[in-house]
Structure formats: C-alpha cells, structure tokens
Design a protein that fits this description.
Length: about 350
C-alpha cells in the first residue's frame, strides 16, 4: 500500500506531482533468500563504470562528506569580502548605501585587509556545515528511498529530495551556528574583535555558551528552506537539462561535459535559494550583532522592506557559490571514482502498471 501521509505531502509539492494513479499494487519481488528486494533511487548508479566503492557504503558517505567540506569551506571563504559587505548593508544601511559604497567605505576605514575579516570562522564553520549537509543528505536520501521502495521513490522523488535535504540541514546548522555567530560579530561590530581567537573568548565571557547558539533557530529558518531549494531544484534541473537541453544522453557525455551541466544547474538553483532564504538571513545578521534581542523583535523592527536589504549582493554571492559548490562536490566524486547516479528513470514495474510497455 502507498502511505497516505506521504501521498498527501507529495500532492502539495510545489515542484511536481504525478497526474496519474496506480490501479494495482503488486507484491514486492523476492530475492533468492526470501527477503524483500528494494531498489534505491540511484541503485542503477554505475553498474558498468569503474568505481572505487559501493553506493551507500561507509567509504561512500565519508568521501561525500569530504566533498562537502571542500565545496562549502572553500567557496564561502572565497566570497568573504562580498559576505562582509552584505552583512554590513543589512545591519547598518544608513552607513553602507550600496554594494559599491560598502566596499569603498570598508577599504577606506580598514584597508584592503579589512575585507578579509571573519575568514577563519567562515572557513571552519562552513566546512563543518558542508560535511553534515552533503554527507547526511546522501545518508537520508538513501534511507528514505529504502523506506519508500523503488516505485514510490520515483513517483515522489522531489518530496524525497526535500525531506532528505531538510533533515541534513537540521544537523548542519547546529555545527555551523557557533562560527556563524563569531563571524557576524567580527564583521559587523568595529573594534569588537579582529580574529576568531579574540572573538570567541570574549563572546563566551559576556554571554556564555548561549552567545554561540542563540542564532540557531534563525539559522534553521534561513538554511533549511535554502537547502531544500538547493538540493531539490538542483536535482530536478539536472534531470530537465539532460531531458530537454543536452543533445545526447548523459551516458554519452564526457566527465567535463557532465560537470558543465552540474555547474549550470547549480547556478539556477542558487538564484532561487538566495530569494527564498534572504529574509531569515537578514534577521540572523542583525540578531548576532545585538545583545538581548530575539528573532521576532528583529523581524518586527526590520519590517517588510528591511528584510530584503542586500538581496542583489546575496543573489550574486549565492548563485555563484551554489554553482561552484555543486561543481566541486561533483568533481570530488569524479576524482575518487564514486558512484554518480544518472537522472532517475521510471522503473520497469511501474511502466507495466501504467501500460507504457508490454
């Protein structure tokens, strides 16, 4: 039987939902040992490819986590200057009028080196976030897929992407929160601290451990919708690019050609990610700057217009960032010869139920 709760959730899915219903439910196939045979969304990953490990193995998860560390740590650190100006636009719009003005004011007051403020907590925090985000996404995607079974996995794959990415980001933000709090203090409070070594002890002395985790709920508000959009939009965009844009099947594309598709799909996903998560990002930036404020108080004070300050900078930053993250992550998979599943195809058993094949 198909689970009712999941069916209702998937029908409300904003991306897509099947327009047909199955009339007959067959018993799952049994293997030679009598156990139920399941097939994951990516079980047909790379049967004929030369891979270094089994799909879903401990080594696979570990290397996916390593790819997440590189993709998030490197990219977020590379855009620290833009992130710094974006944060200052959000917390002090009277002083920093625009992106260009923000850069010029920062260089005039702090010199060129001032644009690198907060690089250490950014690198550490987002490396840990990337480890959990990409590593746990692979774990939850396979876990939920096994729960659903082959046919439901295909039918409700977008809901699967959304659920797996939300689950992964919940843990990723707990890992990110302490360093994000320190980064914002360094970037938005002149004179407070110039390095992580100065900032962390000072924050702990003033507010205790709460100083590092008071922004975790706004982080969830910002990052969980962002990550759900990032993964679901990317997965479906890749699927559509190979179906409607790329003139040949993925199996006939070279590795560099596949990575180009990855980059394009990542950038498209990144633009939507920035828009979805920006209001919560504005709240996080202000909340980590001020003592004693709550997320609701900050949101009320910023108002409908205030939460969209710095959106252009964030679209540029997140679009580029997301594209590079997916490119680096996929490149790590290529380098270590990890299984890289093709876009999902309708299972043969489902085709027979729908009368699409003999």
């Amino acid at each position: 039987m198909y689970p009712t709760a999941l069916t209702q959730l998937a029908r409300a899915n904003p991306f897509s939902a099947p327009l047909f219903t199955l009339q007959k439910v067959e018993q799952p196939q049994q293997n030679l040992h009598g156990g139920q045979r399941t097939r994951r969304l990516a079980a047909a990953a790379t049967v004929d490819e030369d891979v270094s490990c089994e799909f879903g193995s401990s080594k696979y998860y570990a290397l996916c986590g390593f790819g997440g560390i590189l993709s998030c740590g490197i990219t977020h650190t590379a855009v620290v200057p833009l992130d710094l100006v974006k944060c200052r636009l959000q917390v002090n719009p009277d002083k920093y009028k625009s992106i260009g003005n923000g850069f010029s004011v920062t260089v005039r007051e702090d010199g060129v080196r001032g644009l690198a403020k907060g690089w250490a907590p950014t690198f550490i925090g987002y490396s840990m976030q990337g480890l959990c985000k990409f590593g746990f996404y692979e774990v939850f995607k396979i876990f939920y897929s096994d729960l659903l079974g082959e046919e439901n996995t295909y039918l409700w794959r977008t809901s699967l992407y959304l659920a797996a990415s939300a689950s992964a980001e919940f843990f990723a933000d707990i890992a990110l929160a302490p360093m994000e709090a320190a980064k914002v203090r360094i970037q938005t409070q002149p004179g407070y601290a110039n390095t992580l070594r100065e900032c962390a002890p000072k924050m702990f002395a003033e507010e205790g451990l709460w100083a590092f985790y008071k922004g975790v709920v706004p982080l969830w508000m910002r990052q969980i919708p962002y990550t759900m959009m990032k993964f679901a939009c990317f997965e479906r965009t890749v699927e559509m690019l190979y179906k409607y844009v790329v003139p040949k099947p993925r199996s006939e594309c070279s590795k560099p050609e596949q990575l180009v598709v990855t980059f394009v799909a990542g950038y498209i996903a990144g633009v939507f990610c920035a828009i979805v998560s920006h209001p919560a990002d504005s709240v996080v930036s202000v909340l980590n700057k001020e003592k004693g404020s709550t997320a609701f108080q900050v949101l009320k004070r910023l108002g409908p217009k205030g939460v969209w300050k710095g959106l252009v900078a964030r679209i540029i930053m997140i679009g580029t960032l997301t594209a590079l993250q997916w490119f680096i992550y996929d490149s790590v998979k290529v380098y270590f010869r990890l299984p890289r599943p093709p876009p999902p195809e309708m299972p043969e058993s489902l085709k027979k139920k729908l009368g699409l094949t003999d």
